[in-house]
Amino acid sequence: MIQKWFGIPALLLLSVLLIAFSSTFTEDDQMELVRAFERMDVEATRYMVHHGGRIDRRLTGEEVHQLADGLADELSLGDAQIERRSDGTRLEAAGTWSRNIQVELTVINDRPQPQRVQPYLAIRVSGSELHRSQLLQVRNRLHRALHQYRIQPRTHFSIQGTVSMERADRHGREALIRRVMKALGAREVESMRTDRTTSVSAYTPLFTGGLKTGGGIMNVQIAAKAGQEDRQMILTLGTPIITIEY
């Protein structure tokens, strides 16, 4: 998840990465990840729908503020708060859509000197309970708000949950990820393995689009680590990448 303590450069780096994957996830992509959880008896605990990237047109400084205020209103959030830093101006607003859905809006002008700029926009909608109808409503509401301001949606979906395993060590993580990849018909593109976490970037023909990496084209990320309880694993999936803390 993109935490507030992340600096503007880190957010903009993620923006470049996500823009490279120009298409937004489809409803079918989203449901494939949900079905993968269901087939493996994973108890979903969190999900996130994330939009991130620079907008396609140039705005004046005043228009950047108007965009932040307008989107905050459209998304039923509180007033946008301004924070000026050495690396740019950041406008943020937050609110809830229900008791279990939190929404965060961030608009960044990292080039305050030019007369017109293309600000970076991030919207994160996260939930703690997973209902299929709710997921569709969240995606549609976010897309409506973006279209209202002539912004092309670049949304990505992540889901996280817990699953019981006989082993919660490295071997258990590898076994769990192999099961997920088999369920998605995916092949590994590249990976990162530490003592605590295994993260695999993969490609599946089930999903649209793809993100070019050093190892090839990927469109799904799978991560597993040991949970808080014995024989418990935390599984996180995202398309094309995970945008939630794992």
UniProtKB/TrEMBL annotation:
InterPro entries: DUF1779 (IPR014794), YwmB-like_sf (IPR036209)
Pfam families assigned to the protein according to its UniProt record, in alphabetical order: DUF1779
SUPFAM superfamilies the UniProt entry points to: YwmB-like (SSF143842)
Lineage top rank: taxon: Bacteria
Protein name per Swiss-Prot or TrEMBL: TATA-box binding
